[in-house]
Design a protein that fits this description.
about 325 residues, alpha+beta, seven-stranded mixed sheet, five-stranded mixed sheet, 8 helices, 14 strands, about 25% strand, globular
């Protein structure tokens, strides 16, 4: 175990997994502790999903959203990934002394608008003001609860050999947007974050079929990290069709200039879905009919090559997607 916390521990890769496994899971372990996006709990014979998430994105405002919108989408989507209908949120803010009231109003308005779109109520919260320099502008934590749909039963441990792997749209846009907004490399490109609430998309899927094994939102660490997490939880492998992975031209161009892999850039409005091949067409029909998933595509399938994510290319070559390590892109969510 490393001696000190580094930014890599917050990137969503191997160091994050080690931190969770060696510290949090070790000391918090109980029958309900889960590596999934939200815990599914039995209360009074009804299943609920319960989740919490912290948001420290820098800069707090970016094309396609801001930290307020992000804080609602993040928790709503985590609940939805467990097949739950989000109902209530709480919100805690830590605000730096000197933060402009006009900016706070912009953030809160975005939160209210996004909560209304998702159909959830923000019912309680807490506010703390930190001294100058103790916080970078504003940090937000949201906690959410929702009722699990009757026919939903998803987990990162439920992937099966032969399952199709589906993404609900082009990947890497949020991470690329934040990278460009920092203007550290002097690159200009027209990229907008995919930040969006996806709970109504998930509800539409379960109205069509309950035969969905895994749903995961590809936030920190992007789709690539999600795939390796599922490989570990389900003890399977994954084979990807490299040409089928949807990436916007601008994102692909930025990644090409910087030597980055789009699969490891964060998304904030994309789901990764594992389901039997027999369900692919009904799932795609639903996704293509919803506003945030019209670019959904099958990108691969589950194999018995445990722990390996292999990318196949049209020219006949195969490569192993390297496992995520180190700091991919700090402060993206």
């Amino acid at each position: 175990m490393e001696e000190f916390i580094t930014l890599s521990h917050g990137a969503g890769g191997r160091q994050t997994a080690d931190l969770i496994g060696n510290i949090f899971k070790k000391y918090f372990a109980n029958k309900d502790f889960t590596p999934d996006d939200a815990a599914v709990l039995n209360l009074d014979s009804r299943k609920i999903a319960f989740s919490t998430d912290g948001f420290i994105v820098s800069p707090w405002k970016f094309p396609g959203g801001n930290i307020g919108k992000l804080s609602i989408c993040g928790t709503v989507n985590d609940l939805a990934c467990m097949g739950a209908r989000p109902q209530y949120l709480t919100c805690a803010m830590v605000i730096e002394e000197g933060f402009p009231i006009a900016d706070l109003l912009c953030i809160v308005e975005a939160m209210a608008k996004t909560a209304a779109e998702a159909g959830v109520n923000i019912v309680a919260g807490d506010t703390k003001v930190a001294g100058k320099g103790q916080v970078d502008g504003i940090f937000i934590t949201t906690t959410g609860v929702g009722r699990v749909l009757d026919n939903a039963n998803t987990s990162g441990a439920f992937a099966q050999v032969g399952d199709a792997v589906i993404v609900t749209g082009d990947v890497g846009r949020h991470g690329c947007t934040i990278l460009l907004e920092r203007n550290e490399f002097g690159i200009e490109a027209d990229v907008t974050s995919d930040c969006a609430p996806l709970n109504k998309t998930v509800e539409a899927l379960f109205a069509e079929t309950g035969n969905i094994h895994v749903i995961r939102d590809a936030t920190r660490g992007g789709v690539g990290t999600v795939l390796y997490e599922i490989c570990e939880q389900s003890q399977v492998g994954i084979k990807l069709n490299g040409e089928a992975i949807p990436v916007a031209d601008a994102v692909r161009g930025v990644c090409g200039m910087l030597g980055m892999e789009p699969l490891y850039l964060a998304c904030e409005g994309r789901l990764v879905i594992f389901a039997p091949q027999s369900e692919v067409q009904p799932i795609l029909q639903v996704l293509h009919s919803m506003p945030y998933s019209q670019g959904a595509a099958v990108i691969g399938e589950v194999t018995d090559n445990v722990g390996k994510v292999v990318v196949e290319h049209s020219f006949g070559g195969k490569t192993i997607l390297p496992q995520p390590t180190g700091e991919l892109l700090p402060r993206i969510c």
